Amino acid sequence: MLRIIELAAADPEFAACFAIRLAVFVQEQNVPLAEERDEYDADALHFLAFSGKTPAGTARVIFKDGGRTAKITRVAVLAAMRGQGIGAALMNAIDCSRRMDDVNAFVLDAQVHALAFYESLGYTTQGGIFMEAGIPHRRMSKSKTPR
Ligand code: COA
Question: Which among 37, 51, 74, 104 has most CB atoms closer than 10 A?
């Protein structure tokens, strides 16, 4: 069974979010550790997906423009748990969160290999490819009607 919780960096479950980010971005994708943990963690809203009792995926939302824009970052599912809908469920949990009530746009910088994943969730690309942490990315966005 899949369960998704929302939390802050000060909550004990944040350790599981960060452990997933370390496994996926630092160990698997060779992102430097110094770039992985940044100044945005403290104020961000974090999401953690459990498959049964096992932490399986995470994502982070940074609010911008006075809370009107939600920037989604650090979307990661453990390699062994991919292809089961956990990534899509995390993105849907962000969409449905009460913390997004005042949001009118979602933005994210997608790794190019994951463009189709985000397109399947309604995101469209903007602009060209740019490099971040040595990985090619493209800006994507999706509009939302504030509740
Ligand atoms: N490329 C293309 N399509 C992909 C994809 C990829 N890398 N990953 C998933 N999809 C598709 C799936 O086929 C599925 O389509 P379907 O609904 O038609 O079957 C849909 O997207 C949802 O897949 P899901 O099982 O929910 O995704 P996931 O749990 O495997 O998580 C990622 C997707 C991208 C989060 C995961 O592959 C991951 O953590 N990758 C490494 C970290 C990363 O690159 N994160 C993105 C940073 S921008």
Answer: 74
